[in-house]
What does this fold into?
Amino acid sequence: MHTDSDILQLEDAQQACTDVPMAESTVNSRTRDLDRLLLRAGHLVDPNFQPSIELKDYIQDYARVLVVGAGGLGCELLKDLALSGFKNLDVIDMDRIEVTNLNRQFLFRLEDVGKPKAEVAAKRVMERVSGVKIVPHFCRIEDKNIDFYNDFIIIVLGLDSVEARSYINSVACSFLEYDENEKPIEETVKPMVDGGTEGFKGHARVIIPGMTPCFECTIWLFPPQVKFPLCTLAETPRTAAHCIEYAHLIKWDEIHSGKTFDPDDPEDMQWVYKEALKRAELFGIPGVTYSLTQGVVKNIIPAIASTNAIISAACALETLKIVSGCSKTLDNYLTFNGVEGLHTKVTHFEMDINCIVCGPGVHMELDTSCTLQKFLELLEKHPKLHLSKVSVIFEGKNLYMQGPLEQETRSNLSKTLFDLMGRVPSGTVHVNGTSSKNDKKTSGLRKLRVFFKGADGMTDMDTAGGA
It folds into this structure.
């Protein structure tokens, strides 16, 4: 058995093999383990890794990390990242704390019920880990300007829905640019680490846009949502879930004709719960609760605290590895199964070179006379896109926007896209719209590589605006 003296001698011998001296107090300091990763060379490091005090200072003082979600996994992520040396964190979440959260979201207390998750989670971590600054954002992820996400060196996801992941994925991939050889430009890559849990199962994955598959590349990994026949819901309900879906899918439209159900609105969810309860009592079916109503309507599987802790640890480690290069990263999808015993596996998935989100972009060839209005119509009919309610952005300029800016940009609809893009022969256009897939509507950014027919052969006078 090794004594403490033997271990210290071994550490001294290992340190002598590196070019970076470590302080004498390192072994006993709070950042001992971080120092061993960042201040020593190794055989499994990234080719560009340079152990140094400056690297450690960069991670602690300058690297900004965004955590998306402050629920069961998000709470763990904030704590793990703060203890891993990251001192500049932001967290975004639109939910408020509920009593049912308290059994696994350990940063919250009974007196916090009703308060924004992001704000309370940030406060609690800052109270526990000195020197850490966490900026909370209590809002929807779609409410933030796209440039907001570009301010972070990496984005870490702790979400519970496919739609939210898809949106953040499309935002991060929208920053990606390719050179003339269709190779990703390194400084435009926005890495992501995605974690997810379902009961005793979970996953952690590394997404490096342009190098590894993005979320859209492997969307097929997520099974389609279970659907009940409407005749069963309306005539012969047998379970509590049938009663809830009846209230959600049938009764809501009967009573609220024209109003869209919002699963994130507590009042809407409370209405569905009460109607489902009435339905269950009518047919003598037990088990309808508010928590189950949320789970059925939002397709949520109950979370387990231990699974969240395991997946969060994996995500935090991958975040540190990506930012510092202190070790090779996960390649590229880790699955965890703790239902019977323990099983973990890493799978290498390939990037889809034709992906409409992380690829070089969908190729579109247009006439120089194509108006912006006609361009929007083409997007809706495009076999790969099927986009509606589209906003169009070129080089940071809003050509046409939905929402409050629609009236301000409406005059551009009659202008040609060629003129609006500065009469360049080709360019990358970002569009933000709604598309339908697997009977579900999702919104997100798409990248289009627009080429104008005959624009290369135009004279200088043509380019200047002459015809």
Notes: Confidence is low (pLDDT under 50) at residues 6-28, 459-467. The first strand starts at residue 64 and ends at 68. The two ends are 87 Å apart (CA to CA). The chain has three domains: 59-223+303-347, 230-297, 362-464.
